[in-house]
Specification:
- The protein is of the alpha/beta class and 264 residues long.
- It has 2 domains: 108 residues, Glutaredoxin (3-Layer(aba) Sandwich), CATH 3.40.30.10; 122 residues, 3-Layer(aba) Sandwich (Glutaredoxin).
- A hairpin with a 2-residue loop joins strand 4 and strand 5.
- Helix 3 crosses helix 5 and helix 7 packs across helix 8.
Length: 264
């Protein structure tokens, strides 16, 4: 009898754990949003604001639910809110169209710009969990990473001891963190870089790298008042390739560029 009860208890616990693991996106509302999303700073949340009558929302919701349990292991939670039944939170974040996807990292809302399918949500969660800056210990590491994305920004600090603790590295890292969600288009790397062919400088340098194009350098790197926002603005401007082949994955980010882009 005791053995049977233990077996039954174990079965119930297993079923409950399985149900939680396969649970769909959390239902959010004006009352529980702050507690679930904003007060858990260590977790990143991806939130879909939808309207029940919206056709695009009806298409996306099952995809969103399917991806939810698959991204939890990467530290991302997913939630959805009926923006017609709840008005306070959608108004706070200026939600005007449906579906609107925002991700919250360290309580800061940002527009979700990656693919809207299961694989896209998983890739987003994986990338956003990683450090945004690759430690390029040698030329081969930098070249291999640069091949994965159209544009790479590299910070070289020749001869700088404990460079990852330097003010310049921290400023670059903060800028890369802010732009990490653009991983389809740009990458970030840092290293000594003193002997990297065709780009090395004697002093610290920040360079934009694109295949078959001349390297372009940030010209005000020694400014004592340099901020992450300064670097972010420059990298935002320089993030596009000279010629960009449009696809469903890059059309949005290309169309909202701060730089004039010729679409053909």
């Amino acid at each position: 009898m005791v053995h049977s009860l233990r077996h039954l208890s174990l079965l119930v616990l297993t079923l409950c754990a399985t149900a939680r693991a396969n649970a769909p996106a959390s239902e959010l509302d004006d009352k529980n949003f702050d507690d679930l999303v904003l007060r858990r700073k260590k977790e990143m949340w991806l939130v879909m604001f939808y309207a029940p009558w919206c056709g695009h929302c009806k298409h996306l919701k099952p995809i969103f639910d399917e991806a939810t349990p698959k991204v939890r292991s990467y530290g991302m939670r997913m939630g959805k809110m009926d923006a017609t039944a709840n008005t306070d939170v959608p108004k706070r974040y200026e939600v005007k169209g449906y579906p609107t996807l925002l991700y919250f990292r360290q309580n800061k809302p940002q527009k979700y710009k990656a693919r809207r399918d299961v694989a896209g949500f998983i890739e987003f969660a994986k990338v956003m969990k990683k450090d945004p800056v690759l430690d390029a210990v040698n030329q081969h590491t930098l070249d291999a990473d640069a091949k994965r994305r159209p544009v790479t920004f590299f910070l070289g600090q020749p001869g700088v001891e404990n460079r990852m603790k330097s003010a310049l590295y921290k400023t670059f890292h903060a800028a890369a963190f802010a732009l990490q969600d653009q991983f389809v288009h740009i990458g970030f790397a840092a290293g000594d870089g003193g002997d990297f062919k065709n780009i090395a400088k004697e002093q610290s340098y920040l360079v934009r790298l694109e295949k078959n194009e001349e390297p372009r350098y940030y010209m005000d790197l020694d400014n004592e008042d340099l901020t992450a926002e300064d670097l972010t603005q420059w990298m935002e401007y320089e993030r596009h390739c000279i010629f960009t082949t449009l696809s469903k994955d890059n059309f949005y980010m290309t169309s909202v560029s701060v730089k004039a882009v010729l679409l053909h």
